[in-house]
């Protein structure tokens, strides 16, 4: 049964699709829940990697177990579901950081970003995957409020208001943080990108 | 595209980029667009690492049923009683062969074919769990399992909502109470079949229980994120340490 939905179903861009799937999952529909999971999990995982580095997988699992447990009491549409999962994930990540008391570390070297990201359009899928890892790793180097704002908006796909709820801030503050984050990223890409275009093979 | 104009993005551009990244609208436009598009690229194969465990948890949650609260709590009480018995039986079975286990098994809702022969032939443990450092704990817990395994997490479980899966949590406690070298063997027993199924395989039980127990103690959610900062049970959910050698 689950096999039906495990394929390359396109991302549920329409909130309505996710809303319907969440509603069905709340009634115990396993196939619908798998759709929900497959839609939200990759984005959650990337967001968590920015927070807890390579422990993101563990924290994501904890997050989903809590989501499953509390799913019956969830009310809202697809967008608010994304926000709710991100909120749960964030809390689990903060708990995790308190437990381990160490800084997150992502194993992908940030330096590989520019070459890989620049070629992502034309290269193989493996390279795209590397580009994704590298992009996440670079975003993770931002100050945390900026990194979170960028990830929640650009990757998890939340609007500023929903992201603000996740972060416990005002929407304006989240917009500003994301804006600063993007400016920083652009600056970094400018600095390293020039070198790339001048000499394709870095030393 | 020009080579290196200084990229001074304004707020409108930023909003545009943020909103469009998920649909990949900006890929190929400029490096920042590429970066965001890469970060928000479609899912890859390796991004569903815990899917089986999550789906098992979903099945265990039995969401369609929505029992009425009083009934749910009665069931929970019953289940926890049964689990206590079951844990006692398992421990007794460890010490004194299969007699006690067989006796109690007839009362339990476990599959009825629960042959005493299982415990009567204690094959040498494969000795798989390497260095979890748990052996000391479990020796203690065999003497008084209630106090050591019970109070830390079980106690807080009682206040949880009916969508907990007490049986899985209980089985995880029972499993963890086992001696490290015997754990793999224990999973062959019918009593743990549900746990193995929920975890999605014997080799996944260790990690599954780590996640279950961590989240069980982390429980009721969003408002109280500080709750489990303190007690921090030893459920650093690392990679599975059990690798069944069979």
Structure description:
The complex is a heterodimer of chains A (203) and B (246). With 203 residues, chain A is mostly helical. Chain A is built from nine helices and no strands. Chain A has helices at residues 15-26, 30-52, 56-70, 78-100, 113-119, 125-139, 144-155, 160-167, 171-198. Chain B is elongated, with a radius of gyration of 24 Å. Chains A and B meet through helix 2, helix 3, helix 4, helix 5 and helix 6 of A and helix 1, helix 2, helix 3 and helix 12 of B.
Strand content of chain A: under 5%
**Main sheet makeup of chain B:** none
Strand residue percentage of chain B? under 5%
The count of strands of chain A amounts to 0
Determine the structural class of chain A based on helices, strands and strand pairing. Answer: mainly alpha
- Provide the gyration radius of chain B in Å: 24 Å
Mean pLDDT of chain A: 83
Please provide the ordered H/E string of secondary-structure elements of chain A. HHHHHHHHH
Looking at how many chains there are and whether they match, the oligomeric state comes to heterodimer
Number of continuous helical runs of chain A: 9
- CA(first)-CA(last) distance of chain B: 59 Å
Structural class of chain B: mainly alpha
Overall geometry of chain B comes to elongated
SSE blueprint:
The complex is a heterodimer of chains A (203) and B (246).
Chain A: H1 15-26, H2 30-52, H3 56-70, H4 78-100, H5 113-119, H6 125-139, H7 144-155, H8 160-167, H9 171-198
Helix pairs in contact in A: 1-2, 2-3, 2-4, 2-7, 3-4, 4-8, 5-6, 7-8, 7-9, 8-9
Chain B: H1 11-20, H2 31-39, H3 51-61, H4 69-96, H5 99-105, H6 117-120, H7 135-143, H8 145-157, H9 166-176, H10 183-186, H11 193-199, H12 205-218
Describe this structure in a few short sentences:
With 203 residues, chain A is an all-alpha fold. Chain A has helices spanning 15-26, 30-52, 56-70, 78-100, 113-119, 125-139, 144-155, 160-167, 171-198.
